[in-house]
């Protein structure tokens, strides 16, 4: 049995949710820590190797949402400028993993940090997204916690099978 390197132990046991994304066009998930899995209700083997936007698509019932576009812009900025991009709090609903096609209301405080390779190119993005839903809901009486009912246009629950 091989020993887990200390840096991986630190990553896995962090009380903060993290993803490591490849700096490719789909921002492929290459690693995820336990806290991120917990706060998103996902499973490691279902999301690693997938685009973050396939795992966390736009809520089809929230046409006004710019969450996917804003996240992509932040990730693109981190890659093009080779600088950390701290986003404003984002409303970014996530699919429930129960096969219903429904989304859960979520607010996040995301930070995207580029990781450079030996040649100075961005190889990865360290994506840190704190779930701030409870705070936002408790301070905004217009926002109601819980499920946001949304069905994919084609009516399938395939996305739920990813988590």
Low-confidence runs (pLDDT<50, min 5 residues)? 146-163
Proportion of residues in helical segments:
25-40%
Mean pLDDT equals 87
Total helical segments: 6
Largest sheet, in brief, is: 6 strands, antiparallel
Question: Which percent range describes the beta-strand content?
Answer: 15-25%
Shape: globular
How do the helices and strands follow one another from N- to C-terminus? HEEHHHHEEEEEEHE
Q: Rg from C-alpha positions?
A: 16 Å
Q: How many beta strands in the DSSP annotation?
A: 9
What keywords describe this structure?
single chain; 163 residues; alpha+beta; six-stranded antiparallel sheet; globular; disordered C terminus
Can you walk me through this structure?
By secondary structure, the chain is α+β, with helices and mostly antiparallel strands. The strands form two sheets. Strands 1, 2, 3, 4, 7 and 8 form a six-stranded antiparallel beta sheet that branches. It has a three-stranded antiparallel beta sheet with strand order 5-6-9, with no helix packed on it. 24% of the residues are buried. The C terminus is likely disordered.
